[in-house]
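ugh finaly. both done.
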Amino acid sequence: MPGRDATACDICAHLGTASFAVVASLLLRPDRLNNEVIAAAVRDLMRHQHTDGWWPVYSALERPSIETTAAAVHALVLLKADGYQRVVRRASHWLKSQQKDGHWSDEGHPDSVYLSALVADALALAANESELTFSASAVATKNAPRESKTRRRFDVALSFPGELRRDVATLARELAKSLGKSQVFYDDYYKAELARPNLDLYLQSIYLEHSELVVVIVAAKYDEKEWCGIEWRAIREMIKKREGPRIMFLRADDASVSGMFSVDGYIDMRGRTPQELASLIRERLALPELT
């Protein structure tokens, strides 16, 4: 507005402007970064991503924008903000789903060529590819925040009794649509990998060390199953190490499981669709404690 200085908050309310401000700063003036504006932009981008992976133009809107989503991917990848990989991966899956007839177009956006180039570069950046429409070689990273944690192999690992396999298979498919199949540990997806000696130890390492979020589907038979017991040992170790934020309970019935108490929160699966459950799991993944 005339006669009024723009603040970091003003800029970040428009998520597209926030994203382009970060990219322009990194590419054009990396020696004069406004850390306050960049920090505010990243904070708002992390906060306002929809669980399906897209961003709106304005933080207060609930309408997806291809341009803003692609720009946010550029900003977060170039800046390497903490926890950006999972956020960018969700955005990439959504952007791919929006391609029509080989290109991208947004309602009210007149230039599909520019938009398609922006999205193609965003997908390339997300995949760590080097051939882009623009050159990112000028980005100075010495002043940019670095990653503070090592990425685990899977976003989600599912632990469940075999009696619920049909329901869990549908849930796994819903998660794979948005997160990518390679980010969901559901045993049927990895039959060849799991055909090995000492599978008990291998499974425990997947749940304990290689999964960001372990979703435990509690049901009457869970306590009786040998393989559930093996997985549950790893999950109990996570609780012992105060890694509770990495565990999410879903209940299929009112059965009790040894080591799970009445104070433990859960989502009741009954009456919820697989789409609703997948959305809740994605929502949990997006919380700051896991990014």
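ok and the 2nd:
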Amino acid sequence: MHSGVKIQEAFTSLQAFFPGLQVEIGDIDAANISHRAFFSVWDRFGLLPERYLYNSEQVHPTMKYYPLRPELAESTLWLFLGTRDPYYQQVVGRRLVNSLNRHARVDTGGFAAIHDVETMEKENHQQSFFLSETLKYLYLLYNDSFLSNSTYDYVFTTEGHPFPIVPDIRGDAFPFIDQQLPPRYRAWCQSPEHANTAILGTHCSCLDLMICPAWAEVNPGQPLQADVESVCHVSDEFEASACKRPGDCGVDSATCRERLCSSDGFCYTP
């Protein structure tokens, strides 16, 4: 991190979400290139190892497992939806499904994580995300009527759960506008131009303003003051965001709700 020297050049299976992200921003050509790189590793081994050292073209010696992760199937779905290219159904999707059936299916029912993609040794468990994500994305790759025929647009959580964007959500841009912050927190929110803090303390959070309070004692014995730092929502008064009392934790940046201090000394939003 300090020198910029590369320690290990590798693909990890979790990174296979990235082509889907490239689709979302409209960079289809780059998404296709990224996707083909990940899919080539799947095609070589039959499944996607957790980590692949692409310079030496071998699986990481201690990370040969495939726990039925969904990221490559997810990117395949978004590329198909973005291009309608049958390649993603007829070639990629078919190989993903066939490989899972060939290597991960259990005779007594269900699927098992793979301990080693070189030997296809199975483990004795099936992660829940295989059901909520991997199978869901593969299903939608061949039948997206759930999305295309719906009255609403959908947002998928990181665990593959679809949430409809109903009119109530679209129409309420400031759902917390009527919630007042405790008076002692109003001074925390300062804009880079030092705008009126009264409006910042009512319904605008530090995240909204892309600022963060960094507390510093200017003169011995003088009250602490807040300076603009970066976007966050935890006071920097204590190392590692540890707290001793609720007043140390500030306000949640997304909801403007007052945060509390747990018995273990960590801030949380109730």
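summary for the 2nd one i guess: Residues 11-169 form one domain.
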